[in-house]
Amino acid sequence: MRLDFTNPVALLLLGLIPLALYLGRNSLANLSSIRRRISLTARVLLILLIVLALAGLRFRTTSRDLALIFLIDVSASVAQDNRQEILDFINSETGNARPRDYIGVIAFAREPSVEVAPTRKEALGDWRLTEISSNPPRDYTDIAAALKLAAALVPEDAAGRFVLISDGNENLERSTEEAELLRASGIEVYTRALGTTTESPLSRAEVAVRELGVPEKLAEGEAFDLRVIIDSTRDTDATLRVFRNDSLTAERRVHIVGSGENVFVLPQRVERKGFYTYRAEVEAIGSDAFVQNNSREAFAIVEGQPKTLYLFGDPRPSPAVVRVLADGNFAA
């Protein structure tokens, strides 16, 4: 049996116990020594019980049964001819499982999908995984989301053991952090590496838009710089386009280097208030390994032009003040 907490942050409130003892000694000074000790002990126990309740204390029995969950990467970067290898590996591993162990399968790319919910092997009988039926959008890889889903599927009476089958490429690098959290909670995470697509990206330039920077809030008529960061595996020329609400606002021929960060700044201006969607697209000259990551979107809210009431005592306003307000995009 072991202790577990659903909200361990609440344990920080245990720091109130020394404060309660300090305040209690002063407020209970007129009581006898025995009554004062009983009162202080009761207060400490009350605080302890409240904190443990807030922290979600649970008593969990240690189980020898395993929840063996396979997480299969089906994104575009994984070669299709690896599918049979994956199936053979899973069937071999499940064959070694004990009758009361749970078997589960998750396929993931942009989002995870449950292929087989965790089920005891004895209930599966002679089951074998013959195909991967899930077909999530393959233009993105979110390993962390798959790990979170797997953790939510682990039965209460079993210990989790995850086998991550992937090439390791992901759009959001959060899987290592998520795996460490799972290990801290007692779930084992193992990995099995896969090859990438049959035609290696190293034979072609791989260009990707990593970031599109746009101010979240803008004023009507305000000029700003739109910032695009592009990664590439080798030096190449490309065409960079920027769209605002699907209308082309900028197009530039750029040279992208394979080492270092490629940052491009494009001046923009919005004349009317409203909600705008910006999209940056890069088109490499020649072949590109994965065109799915060649664009990024960002959003901006354009507010109405700020107005200022300028009160003055002279017959005519100060030209300097009016000029400063105009330069700051204020209507005065």
Provide an overview of this structure.
It is built from seven helices and 15 strands. Residues 196-203 have low confidence and may be disordered. By secondary structure, it is α/β, with parallel strands linked by helices. It has helices at residues 16-27, 33-55, 83-95, 121-124, 143-153, 175-184, 319-327; strands at 2-5, 57-60, 66-73, 102-108, 112-120, 159-166, 188-193, 207-213, 217-219, 223-232, 236-244, 247-256, 262-269, 274-284, 295-303. It is flat, with a radius of gyration of 30 Å. Strand 4 and strand 5 form a beta hairpin. It has a five-stranded mixed β-sheet with strand order 5-4-3-6-7, with helices on both faces. A five-stranded mixed β-sheet has the order 9-15-14-11-12, with no helix packed on it. Strands 8-10-13 form a three-stranded antiparallel β-sheet, with no helix packed on it. The protein folds into three domains: 2-58, no CATH class; 66-193, Rossmann fold (3-Layer(aba) Sandwich); 202-303, Immunoglobulin-like, CATH 2.60.40. 25% of the residues lie in helices and 34% in strands.
In short:
The protein is 25% helix and 34% strand.
Keywords:
25% helix; 34% strand; five-stranded mixed sheet; 3 domains; Immunoglobulin-like; alpha/beta; Rossmann fold; 332 residues
The CATH topology of the largest domain comes to Rossmann fold
Bin the strand percentage: 25-35%
Q: How are the strands ordered across the major sheet? A: 5-4-3-6-7
What is the helical fraction, as a range of percent?
A: 10-25%
* Tally of individual domains: 3
User: What structural class results from the helix and strand content?
Assistant: alpha/beta
